[in-house]
């Protein structure tokens, strides 16, 4: 199992982050960070989420295969636009691994994350920066600005927002 989540927990400890409340992992995917994060025991409980129930099921099985008890772990289908469903100031940390580039409105999401974090809470994320993702941003920009792209106005606006988000 990938132990990168343990490194995330160690980083949070190193900088004296608040570990007294729950942590949200948004976009667990196949559980690459989840295993180490839960093994670390750094938080009293873990909310492991993804927009796909299939990925949540894969992650749950991966945790079980690695001998991790699920007593203090909760799973939920949650996407970036659902963050407002969580109570304000309820989380000590929000963790994302290779997820942020999927969001279409990063500034709005960061505002929602700030509301959901406790005072002094931590948002920590790792994002890939490879030519493929840069190319995706370029394609979005071209789709947004090409006069004969064949996209509806709403689709062009979404492509423009994606390109702008990736630029940031």
Topology:
Blueprint: H1 4-14, E1 23-26, H2 34-40, E2 46-50, H3 53-65, E3 73-77, E4 91-97, H4 106-116, E5 117-126, H5 131-145, H6 153-167
Parallel strand pairs: 1-2, 1-4, 2-3, 4-5
Short description:
The chain is an alpha/beta fold. The chain has helices at 4-14, 34-40, 53-65, 106-116, 131-145, 153-167, and strands at 23-26, 46-50, 73-77, 91-97, 117-126. The protein is built from six helices and five strands; from the N terminus they run αβαβαββαβαα.
Question: Can you offer a commentary on this structure?
Answer:
The protein is α/β, with parallel strands linked by helices. Helices cover 43% and strands 18% of the residues. The chain has 6 helices and 5 strands. The protein has helices at 4-14, 34-40, 53-65, 106-116, 131-145, 153-167; strands spanning 23-26, 46-50, 73-77, 91-97, 117-126. Strands 3-2-1-4-5 form a 5-stranded parallel β-sheet. Strand 1, helix 2 (34-40) and strand 2 (46-50) form a beta-alpha-beta unit. Helix 5 packs antiparallel against helix 6 (153-167). It is elongated and about 55 Å long.
Characteristics:
single chain, 168 residues, alpha/beta, five-stranded parallel β-sheet, 18% strand
């Amino acid at each position: 199992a990938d132990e990168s989540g343990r490194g995330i927990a160690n980083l949070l400890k190193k900088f004296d982050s608040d570990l007294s409340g729950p942590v949200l992992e948004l976009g667990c995917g196949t559980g690459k960070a989840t295993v180490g994060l839960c093994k670390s025991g750094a938080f009293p409980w873990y909310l492991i989420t993804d927009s796909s129930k299939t990925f949540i099921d894969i992650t749950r099985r991966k945790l079980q295969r690695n001998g991790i008890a699920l007593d203090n772990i909760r799973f939920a289908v949650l996407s970036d636009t659902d963050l407002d469903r969580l109570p304000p100031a309820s989380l000590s940390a929000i963790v994302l691994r290779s997820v942020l580039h999927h969001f279409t409105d990063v500034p709005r999401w960061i505002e929602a994350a700030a509301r959901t974090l406790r005072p002094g809470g931590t948002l920590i994320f790792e994002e890939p920066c490879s030519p493929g993702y840069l190319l995706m941003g370029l394609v979005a920009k071209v789709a947004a600005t090409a006069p004969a792209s064949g996209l509806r106005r709403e689709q062009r606006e979404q492509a423009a927002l994606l390109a702008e988000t990736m630029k940031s």
